[in-house]
Amino acid sequence: MATTTSGAGAGSRAGKRSGKKGTLYRGREGMWSWVAHRITGVLIFFFLFAHVLDASLLRVSQSDYNSVIDTYKNPITNFLEYGLTAAIVFHAFNGLRIIAVDFWAKGARNQKKLLWWVVGVWVVLMAGMFYPILAHSLHRIFGY
Amino acid sequence: MPAATSDPEFMTITVQVKRYDPDTETHRWDEWQVQALPTWRILDALHEIKWEQDGTLTFRRSCAHGVCGSDAMRINGRNRLACKSLVKDLNPAKPITVEPIQGLPVIKDLVVDMDPFLQAYRDVKPFLIAHGNEPTKERLQSQKDRDRFDDTTKCILCAACTTSCPVFWTDGQYFGPAAIVNAHRFIFDSRDDAAEERLEILNEREGVWRCRTTFNCTEACPRGIQITQAIAEVKRALITRRV
């Protein structure tokens, strides 16, 4: 073996310490889609908290409900709404992909293709929903 | 043999290793520069460090040819066998990082305690269980029946799959991909009679249902086993009760 060609200690900087703890695991499409699925799932869960709370106000007092809903009528909440839709659409279609991986005999072998389908459908739907969801805010910000 | 520096093929690579000192119970990163050929494996670079630069560097290896499964490590952030990863495939211009596989207790440097991993393997009964009379000839099997579990016979128990699994990192009780692969090898073997028994073991809380299909195991397997597919087949067998 050619190991003898390098002199002992040649150019070594042994003992050099760096601050890094460990590397992030470099998973591929499957791992990152799982991470995205988790994150979108948690986001949807927190939205449901707020949603159950504000909807339950209907039983308490209609005017209180109206005033809470009125606080949502601003561009920031509108953009958050668009973000929520993005999370739900991804979570829904990736959920179908996971079901396919588990129950379709060819699912696991085609998981990457399925993921690109999910991303493709997500892009198309989000582009299509851009104006319908954000029309109010766009009018308010750009005034046309 | 010509000196490394005069050979245009040789290049200087930087190898960073995450080490663990059991005496002080501390982790640290050490860095070495090695004169290496592009066709060297990472194992060759580690040998070079151990034999010529720092004899205290500790790692496992046995056959060094991708069969024994001793030298699974996290190289450049991904689980691989050091003896099957070539320098030229890893962007030698940047430092190459080497860490122990994650989720098993580290004993020293790159050596981990494989006992929990092997216990999960033993728990799925990875041996032929046949009831009734012993055949007087060999146990015959059609080519089709043999093909059914061909993929999962290739496992070398290197633990690259199990220690690439995010579920296993956070829950060491999970059987893990390797144990399920080895259960699959017998569950779908027409000569074996204990499929039910093994399916029940994998139906437990820490069994196949913990799989989140991240496909890290499939990507990490140095033998190219379609692991997530095998796990999905076991899941389906549990639901349909058909093997």
UniProtKB/TrEMBL annotation, chain A:
GO molecular function: electron transfer activity; metal ion binding
Region (Disordered): 1-21
The entry's keywords: Heme, Iron, Membrane, Metal-binding, Transmembrane, Transmembrane helix
Pfam families found in the cross-reference section: Sdh_cyt
Gene Ontology cellular component list: membrane
Gene3D superfamilies: Fumarate reductase/succinate dehydrogenase, transmembrane subunit
Transmembrane stretches, start-end: 35-53, 82-105, 114-134
Protein known as: Succinate dehydrogenase, cytochrome b556 subunit
PANTHER family: SUCCINATE DEHYDROGENASE 2 MEMBRANE SUBUNIT SDHC, SUCCINATE DEHYDROGENASE HYDROPHOBIC MEMBRANE ANCHOR SUBUNIT
Gene (name only): sdhC
Origin: domain of life: Bacteria
Compartments, record wording: Membrane
Needed cofactors: heme
UniProtKB/TrEMBL annotation, chain B:
Protein name, entry field: Succinate dehydrogenase iron-sulfur subunit
MF-aspect GO terms: 2 iron, 2 sulfur cluster binding; 3 iron, 4 sulfur cluster binding; 4 iron, 4 sulfur cluster binding; electron transfer activity; metal ion binding; succinate dehydrogenase (quinone) activity
Family: Belongs to the succinate dehydrogenase/fumarate reductase iron-sulfur protein family.
Class of this enzyme: oxidoreductase
Keywords, sorted A to Z: 2Fe-2S, 3Fe-4S, 4Fe-4S, Iron, Iron-sulfur, Metal-binding, Oxidoreductase, Tricarboxylic acid cycle
EC number: 1.3.5.1
Catalytic activity: a quinone + succinate = fumarate + a quinol
InterPro entries, alphabetized: 2Fe-2S_ferredoxin-like_sf (IPR036010), 2Fe-2S_ferredoxin-type (IPR001041), 4Fe4S_Fe-S-bd (IPR017896), 4Fe4S_Fe_S_CS (IPR017900), Beta-grasp_dom_sf (IPR012675), Helical_ferredxn (IPR009051), SDH/FRD_Iron-Sulfur (IPR050573), Succ_DH/fum_Rdtase_Fe-S (IPR004489)
Cofactor(s), by name: [4Fe-4S] cluster; [3Fe-4S] cluster; [2Fe-2S] cluster
Pathway note: Carbohydrate metabolism; tricarboxylic acid cycle
Domain annotation 2Fe-2S ferredoxin-type: ranges: 11-104
Pfam families xrefs: Fer2_3, Fer4_10
Any Gene Ontology biological process: tricarboxylic acid cycle
Domain 4Fe-4S ferredoxin-type: 145-167
Cofactor note: Binds 1 [4Fe-4S] cluster.
Keyword DNA-binding on entry: no
